[in-house]
Write a structure and sequence with these properties.
By secondary structure, the protein is of the alpha+beta class. It contains ten helices and 16 strands.
């Protein structure tokens, strides 16, 4: 799935374009008990409810592709095949078969890692995908009907305690605390929508906190191969670098930042030549980024080996592993260090220039004055004689001298 695919779906989540047919769901407490079920014809909802649910649906398809939004593939085993058949049946039922819904609720409640109350919502839609020409103009004819189910799992939180105005009694008193539905923490879209078409071999997966993708949920509820978000890939890669490099280098943090900078340079150079081809963290890319960092061959090979074990056959995008803020801070610190060294060097030169040996005399005179300077022996001592006119003066060691002895 690409950003344009997600945007095409989300553009329809408004009053005059929405075609959601059904809204199902259930409310679960912190003891994993279902307290109520939802069964609504979406277009019959009251206006306030209609817009609130639309906002939830939009949020379940928000964030960055590869970080908050992942495309998952079904596992290539019996469990994966069973999961695919289940979700196909759920979609084809248009959310009208309670048995399928109860089974899905049961799986979510068993595997979803959340301590509080939450609401499971399911939207059914059938999108008539209009054909587009090569120049992106729409034609009236339909290309296909994309029928899908969108799920959003929303925390339900108790409002904060506080004082409030009670109009009926005309007093300020503790306000009544309510349970309020928050934006989704997790969600999924089946089937995936890719290149303006249905892909029943994959599904979209949404997670609000990219650092907590819930791999068990992907595997056990969705029957898909677990996949790391960009944030998790970055954390994994940095952890590998820190653990291995720290064994050999004391200042591992600086070396890791230098490696990131090289990766960033590789990505930028690659973009200038190949616009749509990303740089993957392959062993050659790792080796290139770690070159000339004072690291031994043993350390470089170890990082390569552990990265291959961690990421398997799907190496992450190099750009996902770069901490841009840290690089900016690092670059600013390096610039400040260079400036400090330059200032120190200049200061040292000035001090050397101002500090003269005890028996050394240095004169600075105008070019016109040079011919008038003579050397004479006075009272047996060699002297430099500089004639001064009436309007001339001299400064010696910062002190002004004007035809008078010091």
């Amino acid at each position: 799935m690409q950003k344009k695919d997600i945007l095409e779906l989300k553009r329809r989540f408004k009053k005059d374009a929405c075609t959601f047919t059904k809204l199902r769901g259930c409310y679960v407490d912190n003891q994993k008990n279902i307290l109520l079920h939802i069964d609504e014809t979406f277009l019959n909802l009251e206006e306030d409810e209609f817009y609130k649910y639309l906002e939830i649906a939009k949020k379940a398809l928000s964030g960055t592709i590869g970080n908050n939004l992942l495309e998952l593939s079904f596992r290539r085993d019996e469990a994966g095949e069973e999961a695919q058949r289940f979700f196909l049946a759920l979609r084809d039922s248009a959310l009208k078969q309670d048995g399928l819904l109860d089974l899905l609720y049961e799986r979510i409640i068993r595997e979803y890692d959340f301590a509080g109350n939450y609401l499971i919502l399911l939207f059914h839609d059938a999108y008539d995908v209009i054909t587009k020409t090569t120049d992106n103009n729409k034609l009236d004819e339909s290309e296909e009907v994309y029928e899908y189910v969108l799920c959003a799992i929303c925390p339900v939180e108790l409002t904060k305690a506080g004082l409030g105005y009670h109009k009926d009694k005309n007093i300020i008193a503790p306000r009544i605390r309510d349970w309020v539905v928050s934006v989704p923490e997790t969600g999924f879209l089946f089937p995936a929508f890719s290149d303006r078409s249905s892909d029943v071999n994959a599904m979209g997966y949404y997670v609000k906190d990219a650092k907590k993708a819930q791999s068990a949920f992907m595997q056990e509820v969705l029957g898909c191969e677990a996949k790391r978000t960009a944030a998790e890939e970055k954390k994994t890669f940095h952890g590998i670098l820190k653990d291995v490099i720290s064994e050999e280098v004391e200042d591992a943090k600086t070396v890791i930042l230098d490696i990131q900078q090289d990766l960033n340079d590789m990505v930028e150079e690659h973009k200038n030549v190949f616009e749509n081809e990303p740089v993957l963290l392959t062993p050659p890319a790792i080796r290139e980024a770690m070159a000339e960092k004072g690291l031994s061959e043993e350390v470089i090979s170890k990082v390569e080996e552990i990265c291959e074990e961690a990421f398997g056959d799907t190496p992450p995008l190099a750009e996902n592993l770069i901490d841009s803020k840290a690089l900016q801070t690092h670059a600013a610190a390096k610039k400040a260090n260079v400036l400090a060294l330059e200032v120190e060097s200049l200061k040292q030169k000035l001090e050397e220039k101002e500090t003269l040996p005890e028996k050394e005399v240095i004169l600075q005179v105008s070019a016109e004055k040079l011919p008038a300077i003579q050397t004479e022996f006075i009272n047996g001592k060699k002297c430099i004689v500089i004639p001064l006119e009436e309007d001339e003066h001299a400064t010696i060691n910062g002190k002004h001298w004007d035809n008078a002895p010091f």
